[in-house]
Amino acid sequence: MTTLTFISWNVNGIRAVEKKEALKWIDKEDVDFLGLQEIKAEADQIPETIFDRKYKFNSINSSSKKGQSGVALYTDIKGEAFLCDHVDILDEGRINEYHFGNIAYFNVYFPNGQRNDERLEYKMAFYDRFLTHINTLREEGKSIVVCGDVNTAHKEFDLARPKANEGTSGFLPMEREWMDKLIEHGYIDTFRHVKGDEVDRYSWWSYRAGARARNVGWRIDYFFVSDDLKEKIVDADILDTVMGSDHCPVKLVLEVKSVK
Length: 260
Known about the structure:
The protein is an alpha+beta fold.
């Protein structure tokens, strides 16, 4: 068996993070899968100096709208990258799909629905297309690992001010019900699996009003795994001391069949 460490982080601009040297900590950690969201860059715009470690494989999916969205995956584990354009139908650079061994891994920047009703509708349709896709892969015998910025806080204790945000996209009943559906379909919220009902643990804070210093945040960044991997979960955590973005990284440690 092999123990793999996965990190997921919405960096809110990979070039901005590089200027802060905010990804250099990766050089000191044994990270097997690094999934970044909202890189806001084309592949040739990503600085080679973001960290010193040289991963053998990377997959960059940039948005067709320059300077927006985009995801990046770095790993040493040999596998195969797939396009997921039947889910990301607007080509917004929202998904890395990477298969290794018997696992289908997804690094996803799910849409934000706060701009207007049209974007909220798109977010909900994206959610449904994505769930259909991973369920299809499960039916084909794949185990599933999903990480990324889901842009929804699931339960009341997943954000600091639930009452004030009942009518805000990111905590709407329809969005939370989709999270319920995801779990009902056999996907495990690994942080809750490991940490139980631990409170005041968030992964995103507004840049306004000193929200992070006061820990007025939301837990909207997740690792989900299919339930066949439940006994393989070694650890899951939120790395809330890591600075450099309005999000912080989240972590999963998983025991799998030897793939290194």
